[in-house]
């Protein structure tokens, strides 16, 4: 059982996700009260993959998030730095081009993709700004980025309830359904430490992305940030 700390040492985070790989998808469905599937659909609509496009799906884990892009006729590359997640994905979807890679040093040429997306993975990267710059580098001019990440609920009373759920309810639920419940304590802590919606938008702009915008899902529990490579 491995729990990463908030200084996000890459080997600790990778090992943590290796531990939870087998039951990761079902655990997410339970802990999100079924919202995870709705969020994945929202990401697919925002990416708007088209036939023949090249889509890089970072922190893709077992490849669940990559499937909608393939269904739209795009060539999707699921990329993750957890070898355990990639191995689990390869067992389930052997035809997908799973690729091991660090978001701060991506193993792809400049401008290789029409769209880059990452869902619930950016806050686990040790250097967020370096990852945003790398995502820009591998995106073709005019291409787009879509980031789906936990954020800050916009209604103050709900924000308080949500914070209590993260730190009090989530760990016992995780113990019941996850193969590595301590990992979800780290995940709860990392959500609380993550920048709010304008904060992440500012970091995208600083990295070089244009036309940056966001919209809230589930009252701001999750936010979808978008940008375009100039």
UniProtKB/TrEMBL annotation:
Binding residues for S-adenosyl-L-methionine: 62, 80, 102-103, 119
Top-level taxon: Bacteria
Function: Methyltransferase required for the conversion of demethylmenaquinol (DMKH2) to menaquinol (MKH2).
Keyword match Methyltransferase: yes
Keywords from the named record: Menaquinone biosynthesis, Methyltransferase, S-adenosyl-L-methionine, Transferase
EC code: 2.1.1.163
Protein name: Demethylmenaquinone methyltransferase
Gene Ontology MF: a single term: demethylmenaquinone methyltransferase activity
UniProt signal peptide: none
Top-level EC class: transferase
Provenance organism: Streptomyces ovatisporus
InterPro entries: SAM-dependent_MTases_sf, UbiE/COQ5_MeTrFase
Biological process, per Gene Ontology: methylation
Catalytic reaction list: a 2-demethylmenaquinol + S-adenosyl-L-methionine = a menaquinol + S-adenosyl-L-homocysteine + H(+)
Keyword Transferase among record annotations: yes
């Amino acid at each position: 059982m491995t729990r990463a700390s908030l200084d996000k040492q890459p080997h600790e985070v990778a090992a943590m996700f290796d531990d939870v790989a087998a039951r990761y998808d079902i655990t997410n469905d339970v802990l999100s009260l079924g919202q995870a599937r709705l969020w994945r659909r929202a990401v697919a609509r925002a990416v708007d993959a088209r036939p023949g496009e090249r889509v890089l799906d970072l922190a893709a884990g077992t490849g669940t998030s990559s499937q909608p892009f393939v269904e739209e006729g795009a060539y999707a590359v699921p990329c993750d730095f957890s070898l355990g997640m990639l191995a689990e994905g390869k067992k389930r979807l052997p035809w997908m081009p799973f690729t091991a890679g660090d978001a701060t040093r991506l193993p792809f040429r400049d401008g290789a993709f029409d769209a880059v997306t990452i869902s619930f993975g950016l806050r686990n990267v040790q250097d967020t700004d370096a990852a945003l710059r790398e995502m820009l580098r591998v995106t073709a001019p005019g291409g787009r980025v879509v980031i789906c990440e936990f954020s800050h609920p916009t209604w103050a009373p709900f924000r308080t309830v949500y914070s209590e759920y993260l730190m009090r309810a989530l760990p016992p639920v995780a113990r019941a359904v996850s193969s590595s419940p301590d990992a979800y304590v780290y995940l709860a802590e990392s959500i609380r430490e993550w920048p709010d919606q304008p904060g992440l938008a500012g970091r995208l702009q600083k990295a070089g992305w244009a036309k940056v915008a966001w919209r809230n899902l589930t009252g701001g529990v999750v936010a979808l940030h978008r940008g375009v490579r100039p």
